[in-house]
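User: Okay, second chain of the day. Same drill as before: sequence in, structure tokens out.
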Amino acid sequence: MGASLSQQILRTDVAGMPLEWVDYRCAVRLYHMEQVAYECGRPLFRLRGGINARTGNRTVVEVSSIIATYGHGAAYPASAAYSPPLNNPTLFRRDANLCLYCGERFLVVDLSRDHVTPLSRGGQDRWTNVVTACRRCNNHKAGRTPEQAGMQLLAVPFQPTYAEYIYLKGRRVLADQMEYLLAHFPRKSPLHARLSGVVPDPLGAAGAAWLSPHAGATLSLD
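Assistant: Same drill. Structure tokens below.
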């Protein structure tokens, strides 16, 4: 125990399908309302509340890193056609903060969203047509396709599944949470292959280091 109170807890449904990240306040509320069916992760916090006037005992709640819950709220998408919302933070994390043209890693402020097939040429603003690019490469490519600009795309853009999207949204993913989510990734997913070390990372050593689950106890996505 002893984790920071800023650590997110992975919430799943009672069948074990990942739903969302919640903070410790929401987790304690779920415990108090007896909506936690079981726990899968390691203990994170031991939180002490008030003293029961009748028994004189102090309320203590132990919160685990992964909790399965009953009740309503977020639901795992039933449709295989589900498309996660496209936004720059998760796009940059999908691509490991690497420019997929020059292969260099950049700070978020120096990254941009590039449309492989430009919008002006009929391209769409969707996961399979966007990649992370540094501002220099994006400006050089301009309103052209990579072929027209003489630039090589280092990896094929893909649409994350719901479980992958939850992973990408995580601020600081613990090793047991990542292992749990990885089990829900499609086996042929590029993200599954990179995180599990099945194939060498096509983005090079910088990408492999960021994506490797064996680098330490936690993975910081900040």
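Residues 87 and 113 are 9 Å apart (CA to CA).

User: Thanks, on to the next one.
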